[in-house]
Structures are given as C-alpha cells and as structure tokens.
Design goal:
The chain is of the alpha+beta class. The protein has helices at residues 36-39, 47-59, 107-120, 150-155, 182-190, 203-217, 221-230, 284-295, 302-308, 375-390, and strands at 64-70, 79-88, 93-94, 101-102, 139-140, 143-144, 255-257, 263-265, 281-282, 312-313, 324-325, 330-333, 339-346, 352-357, 363-368, 404-405.
Amino acid sequence: MTPSLIISTLGRRTGVAVLLAAVVVPVAPAAAQPTAARQHAVCGPHGELRQALRTLTDRHRITGAAVLVTDTAGASCGSWTETAGTADLSTRRPMNATDRLRAGSVTKTFTATVVLQLAAEHRIALDAPVDRYLPGLIRQNGYDGRRITVRQLLQHTSGLPDYLDAPEWEHPERIRYRHFEPRELVARALGLPRPHGEWHYATTNYLLAGLIIREVTGHSPEAEITRRVIRPLGLHDTYWPGDDTRIHGPHSRSYFTAEDGRLADGTAWNTTFGGVGGALVSTPADLTRFITALLGGRLLPSDQLADMRRTVAADPDRLWPGARYGLGLIASPLRCGGLWWGHAGTVPGGHRALTAVGPDGRSVAVTLNEIPATLQAEQDFLDTVQTAFCEERPSEGTEPTEGEHQ
C-alpha cells in the first residue's frame, strides 16, 4: 500500500518538503459559530481555494475534495464551502462538505481531551508512569511501562512502535472486516523493533491512553468521550461505529487503489483496528465545532489546554517539515504567518479529514474521499490547507459565485 502523508491510522508516509520553519505564536481563542446573518453575508468567489481543490481532483485524479471555512464572529463571510469532484462514483453525486466520513486520527484529539479532563480532576497524573494504571502490561522486548509516562503517550515520545507498522498492515484490505481488541494490538506492537528517534507517531500510544481511561473511570473510553465531549457539544453526526462496517446517514463513499491497481470502494471497513486512535465517524461541521470549542477553552481548564499546546518537533518523515506535536494536537506553520492548531487523519479505505484553527480564529475542515497517491499530490493537499487559511479575505459587495455560502 502506498504510504500516506497525513498522520493516518496507518501512521506511515513518504517525505515531502513543504511548509515553512515553525514559528510559535499564540492562537486567538476560537470564536463561536457565526450567526445566521453573518453566514449569509455577501462574499467573494474564493477562486484560489476553488482552484486548489480542482488541482486535487483534476490533476491528481482524487475522487472528491471539500473544504469548510468558518471565520470569527464579525467577519464579513461567516462560513463557506468549496467542493470539487464526486462523493459517490456509482451515482455521480457531487462532493459536498456536509457528508459524514471516517475522521481517522482526528479521533486522537478527542481521546487526549478526555485524558486531560481526567488530569484536571486529579484522576490521572500526566507524569505518572503508565504502569501505575496498567501494571505489567508493558514489560516485553525492552519496553517498560514503569519508564513511560502518560504525557509521553499523548505526545508520541514514549518510544513505543506502531502496531500498524507490522508487515500484515502492508495490505490492510486483506483484513478489513476483522475485529481487533486494543490489548491484542498493543501486544503486536510490543513485538516490533524499537523505533528510531525521540518522536515516533504510533496509534499504539492512544490505545494505551484509552485503556487508562477505562481503568480510571470504569467505563469504556468511547463511552467517556461520548459523555464528556460528543454529547455536550451536540455533535449529532459524530459516533463510534464499533464493528459496524457501514457509515450511517448521508456520507461520501471512499476509494483506495487495490492490489491489482484498480480503484476500489473502501467505505465498508471494520475500524476497530483504530479504536480511540482512529475510529470516529464525523462531519466537517462537527469537527469544526469540536476543535473551536477545544481551543476556545470550553472543554479544558487553562492549565490543561496549555499542557496540550506544549509541543515538540515532529519527525518530518512521519508528518512534514515544520510540524510540531503537543498532546493530541499538531501545530503547523502558515505561509501567511502564525500556526494552525488541529489534527488530521487518514483511513486505509480512503477517507481523509483535517480540522484546525488559525491564529486569527479562522477554522478550516478539509475532507477527501481518496488518499493522494504521489508526493506532489500530498504537497498540493497541504497547499490547499494553506490556501484555506491564507486566501485574502473577500471585500464586501462582491457577488457570490459557485462557492456555497452557509
């Protein structure tokens, strides 16, 4: 399987030299959702963003791409969408920015949020060893849970390997309908060689974080995330699929290149392999509501949010040059200055999601239903994110064109 760039639930990628050197600047508090009046403000055509999406679908033959952009309250445009390509090849239904999709590793930010909520409640200590909560679980092949902290799990500095780097995941479509248990996957990871470097992206870390949530609360981590985050924020299109291979409700189909080189439908998939590191189904609007609430201080006390945003340099071979990683958050530099904060994820069936907030409070959610297949396509995907954040704000009085304004 072709490795993918954006930290996927497969956790592997090919390198691409993009983005500027990181410049750490504070992010303005995220704003509330724009009012109806602002949502219907007269806006410009967003031509640069539209062209960026068409580059993905026309030049790189990605099936469908969509972007939801939401400006802060008082901005002239409120929120708008741009789309290109096709949501469902069998019906030729156009891509849109309201369909559900598999959010992949964006799930990790939800999980990190609950761990930090429990830390605020003094039920988890971030600098305590994992062995305090999961005694004896990590004692194999030189890995020792007495020397790994909860913080290191969330930050991917634990030194643990990713079970998704095991040989059987070179062809994930062969096991797409299998059920997996978190402890089974952790055990698989512990049998792998130690990764190189101080920072190594591994979904293993987040399965362990989920096990800690279960141990501390007595409830499944999925139930705690639903109770503490999904339900309070009214994320009605966000849910855990469990063993159900379908996506319920309106959704885009997703596509991947099969072993025989054909484009195959990858929508039906058992995502228990990702668990609380990559299994959520959501929509761009729900992901935007979540990330703006999180960075706006609605889900965490200020101390825990500050912990979340303390970053280390990420391995550019696992993310991209300039990217930094906090506790379930990516910080990435913008060509127009400052950083976006958020997360991204890809699943092997083809869905990709990215949700983030920029330094002026603008939020961006990008979705694809097919993974870019080349380095240039990955570069152009990241350029699309840059454009969504940095495209010049349109002036008042310009008539709207094809872009959908909400």
